[in-house]
Amino acid sequence: MIEINRYGEIVQMMMGREMDGSVLYWTAAYLVDGLLIDTGCAYTADELAEYIGGQQVNVVVNTHHHEDHIGANYIFQKQGLPLYAHPLALPLINKRLPLREYQEMVWGYPEPTQALPVPETIVTENYTFRVLETPGHSSDHISLFEPEQGWCFSGDLFVSENQKMLRADEDIAGIIASLEKLLTLPVEELTLFTSIGRVFTEGKSVLRRYLDYLDELRGQVHRLAGENLPPAEIRDRIFGRETQLAALTGGHFSVLNLVEQLTGLAEGSS
Ligand SMILES: [Zn+2]
Questions:
Q1: With 98 labelled, which of 54, 80, 112, 146 sits at a CA distance of 20 to 30 A?
Q2: CA of 91 to the centre of ligand 1 (A)
Q3: Residue 253, CA distances (Å) to 103, 110, 126, 174 in order
C-alpha cells in the first residue's frame, strides 16, 4: 500500500506491505526537486514506481541499507538514474541482503543494485543538500540537510521522543552523537522528515526532548544496575514488561536491547 502526503513541495510516500487489510509497518520515502530519498521495501516497489510515473526524478539516495529503504532501487537504476549511499552501505545494497524471517515477511528481499558512494552534497535544480554522516541506527546511516530551508531528512535516526526499544545492532552512543550533531546545524529550527513518517517543524526541540529522555533513562538504569539487578529485571522495573515485538522478531527489536545499551553507556554521554 502507498499513501501520499504533501509538505509544501515535499512529497512523502508512506509505504508498507498490506496483510489482512492492515499495513504491517509503514516506511516513508520523500521526493523533493527531483531527489528521491529512499525507495521503500520490495513489496511496494511497483506501487512506488507507478506513483512516481511521469514525475521528474534525477537522483536516488538511500539513507542506509535496511531493506525497507532500498526495495525499489532496482527500478530506478533500470531507468538509468544514479543511485547513492554511504560507502559502508554499498557492499550490502549491491548484493542480496541477509534477512531474518520476520524481515522477509514484512519487507521482503530487495533486488541488488549497484549504488555509488554518496557525494558530500546533492545539488538539485533549486536546492543543495548536505550529506551528514549520522551513524547509530546503522553504521552506514546518513541524513540530508538543506540549510536554506532548514529541512533535515533523518531516516531512521530518530523515531520517537520516548523510544522504548532498540534493534540488537543499534549503537545508542552513536545515535546520541548523531542527534547532537543535528542540534549543531546552523539553523534556528529544523524541519525533521523521518522515515517512520512523522514530520516535525520544531525538529531541534523534539531532538532535545529525546536526548533528555535518554539521559533520564540512563540515570534510572544505572541506579538499578548499581543494585546489581540483571538487565531483564531493570527492564521490568522501569517499563513493566517486554514488548510483544521482541518475541515476533526473535529479540531483534526489544526493550531489553535498550536497557542493555544504556547500562553500558557512560555518564555524560547523553
Ligand atoms: Zn533502518
A1: 80
A2: 16
A3: 11, 21, 39, 17
